[in-house]
Design goal:
Blueprint (H helix, E strand, L loop, with lengths): L18 H14 L12 H8 L3 H13 L3 E2 L7 E2 L19 H6 L27 H12 L16 H15 L8 E4 L2 H12 L5 E6 L3 H9 L3 E8 L2 E2 L8 E6 L13 H13 L3 E5 L24 E6 L11 E4 L2 H13 L6 H13 L1 H24 L5 E2 L8 E6 L5 H10 L5 E2 L11 E5 L7 H13 L6
Helix pairs in contact: 1-3, 2-3, 5-11, 6-11, 7-8, 12-14, 13-14
Keywords: Aminotransferase, DNA-binding, Pyridoxal phosphate, Transcription, Transcription regulation, Transferase
InterPro entries: Aminotransferase_I/II_large (IPR004839), HTH_trans_reg/aminotransferase (IPR051446), PyrdxlP-dep_Trfase (IPR015424), PyrdxlP-dep_Trfase_major (IPR015421), Tscrpt_reg_HTH_GntR (IPR000524), WH-like_DNA-bd_sf (IPR036388), WH_DNA-bd_sf (IPR036390)
Protein name: Transcriptional regulator, GntR family domain / Aspartate aminotransferase
Amino acid sequence: MPVYLPALFNVDPHASTPLPVQLFAALGRAIKSGKLAHGEVLPSTRQAAAMLGLSRSSIATAYDLLRAEGILDMRAGRRPVVHCTNLPSPRTVQGGTATLSDRGRILAQDPRAASYQRDTGRLSPGVPDEAQFPADLWAQTLRRVARQNHGDEAAYGGYHGAHALREAISTRLASDRGLRVSPGQIIITPGTQASLTLIAQVMTDPGDVVAVEDPGYLGARASFMASGARLVPVPVDDHGMQVSQLPPEARLVYITPSNQFPLGGRMGLDRRLALLDRARAQNALILEDDYDSEFLWHGREIAALAAHGTGCEWLYLGSASKALLPGLRLGWMAVPEPLVAPLRAAHRTMGLAANLHAQLALAALMETGQYRAHLRRIARLYQQRGMALYHALATVEGLHVTPPHGGVQIGAILEHAGFETACLTALSAAGYRMGRLSALCQQTKLEGLIMGFASLREDDPARLAALLRGVLEGAPGV
């Protein structure tokens, strides 16, 4: 498309300098300064005249002067093209710099940046297999709900979530997670990250203490840092966060009790009840991220931690990111009744609404049982893939892995320090995007790999084991 000239300069029809000369000078400056790059197309004389409110003859004269200077290529039947290779980088900003606020500098820090060797790649942790997404069913359902009229919900009336989805989630939480909340206690968000950001902004003041798992989810850490909170890492073991290590001044406690990210521990009932008791005693709020609870293969099912809450000591977070796709941007919060009004208001102020049609499509799948059938199918598939990866990694000396009991990734701990980067480099070169375990640690000293398996191919386990075995051959005792 041709350049829109009024965005680059203005000409003054009342000035003593003739209009063609003004135009020639202005275009020349734009080209020589790099605002107009080599190869960019200018409008025809007719288009330029209409844009600038000038005569075609004035435009033609200015173009001829630029052609004579050798910086404009003009050929019959074609629009003029900038022709000047020795130019500054296009649209380089000259002069001062934009200054971030203190809050902006915190927001601009991304603790996740050091987690990966590459931006894209296969078997990234926490990512489901897109090939398993029920595309035809989703498209059919989406078309149906898009053709319907939805009244106030299609405007701004249902900002905190479509009633149909909140009702479906309320029913599902009661039947599958033992958590009884009304549809009014459900708030729909674009995902868990949005839910965490909302909670961090509403429930903490700068300097408040937030207890987080160590190692733990960097997205949660980023949200709490952005609110100005002080993070206190709490070590985890095979059963999740060690409640005895909880700081007494904690205002919030963030946990992933169903499948601790990234190491996979599962918090038992005794520890869940102990954590609730501790939260009530010190007036803390537990943020239960029910991460990967859809994919639990082994052991007795345990109700959501929030199901055992007796007051306002809990908030429950969930999403469709692993069950369907992260790109759908659908998450939800279940909140105690006294927090509904303030969180709804803040949710609207922060602009965290989710797409209405996507909400209604998900609600329809939940209501008809198709969502549950999809979960059963992919849970079986992910179990097969997760165990295949585990068995292959278990043969690699110098690598400690435990059998996954659910989820879509494995945390593999390196038994000797100093090999993490070499392992990630080898995997990255082979097209894989694994996570760096040490980047998820604060005080805990661990090195290792976070390896997704949702989209595992048949040859991946042996290939990954061979790559890691080749790197770890030089480790002590290997």
